[in-house]
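Tokens as discussed.
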């Protein structure tokens, strides 16, 4: 099956803009371009919309009636999955780690979309994976047809979203006459990084640098490497070579919590370019890019992927 034959349901408003960031570039001494995937259009936008186009299509093709997934109570992914499901009349059950919390931000939006939200009563994030499997079993026993998806939608099918985004980016860069030295982004569950790594290899763009916001660097390298090979095989594109590049040291006080350097980086981008970066992902990735630029360790032009997460601007502490 070729890439064009893979089932896809259009959810996003694509292509998203690619814009030069001249005032940020002047501050950093490195030419930076912003790829505005905060503007993908479903709900309040964000990177997860791209992967959901392929995951939802796979669910529909398999005759599934319920998406089952989860994450933290503030998960952008979980909310967007619930919203995407509704565009094809599917239900959603979301499993959150920890104890029940009042629905604010993404959980409140998921509830508006009609998602059923459950909590694992276990603070371990991996408890979501066990919970998703248990809910899927429960639904099957009740005669339903669930489509279980791991945290972040980090599978080969989900990574197709960013493999195809690389093609979109390549066209935009060519039109702008820009030959990038590399692309930077936040790395969480690793599906976005993996898809983009496979895609830029296919499109012969510069390498991808991910700044981890949660997992240890070695775990990200292993996951991105595996997923990028899997998605390239699925799409029939060349297998990426070389180990993925993942930068650590920018998680701050913890996943899902604001960091001082992330806040400073987000303020810099808002004040120079009029663009908000979310505190959980893009702010910390930008902190990594700022640190590398100030250390003279990065050459431009650099594309920075603005990945969305608008609801967490108001709820993250
Ligand atoms: C706003 C935002 N940026 C970046 C990411 C990281 O993407 P991934 O989990 O595919 O590594 C996420 C993941 O949920 C996200 O919500």
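Sequence:
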């Amino acid at each position: 099956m070729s890439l064009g034959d893979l089932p896809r349901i259009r959810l996003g408003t694509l292509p998203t803009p690619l814009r030069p960031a001249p005032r940020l570039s002047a501050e950093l001494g490195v030419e930076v371009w912003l790829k505005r995937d905060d503007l993908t259009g479903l709900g309040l936008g964000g990177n997860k919309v791209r992967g959901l186009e392929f995951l939802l299509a796979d669910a529909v093709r398999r005759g599934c009636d319920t998406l089952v997934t989860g994450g933290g109570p503030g998960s952008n992914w979980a909310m967007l999955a619930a919203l995407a499901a509704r565009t094809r009349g599917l239900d959603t059950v979301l499993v959150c780690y920890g104890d029940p919390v009042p629905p604010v931000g993404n959980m409140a939006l998921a509830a508006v979309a009609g998602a059923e939200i459950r909590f694992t009563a276990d603070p371990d994030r991996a408890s979501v994976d066990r919970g998703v499997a248990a809910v899927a079993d429960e639904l099957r026993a009740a005669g339903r047809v669930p489509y279980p998806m791991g945290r972040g939608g980090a599978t080969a099918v989900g990574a197709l979203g960013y493999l195809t985004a690389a093609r979109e980016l390549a066209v935009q860069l060519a039109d702008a006459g820009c030959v990038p030295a590399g692309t930077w982004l936040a790395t969480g569950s690793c599906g976005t990084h993996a898809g983009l790594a496979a895609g830029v290899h296919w499109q012969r763009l510069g390498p991808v640098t991910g700044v981890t916001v949660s997992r240890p660097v070695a775990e990200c390298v292993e996951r991105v490497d595996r997923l990028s090979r899997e998605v390239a095989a699925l799409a029939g594109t060349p297998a990426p070579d070389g180990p993925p590049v993942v930068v650590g040291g920018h998680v701050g006080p913890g996943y899902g919590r604001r960091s001082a350097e992330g806040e400073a980086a987000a303020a810099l981008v808002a004040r120079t370019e009029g663009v908000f970066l979310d505190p959980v992902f893009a702010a910390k990735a930008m902190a990594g890019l700022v640190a590398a630029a100030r250390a003279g360790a990065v050459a431009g032009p650099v594309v920075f992927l603005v990945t969305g997460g608008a609801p967490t601007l108001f709820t993250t502490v």
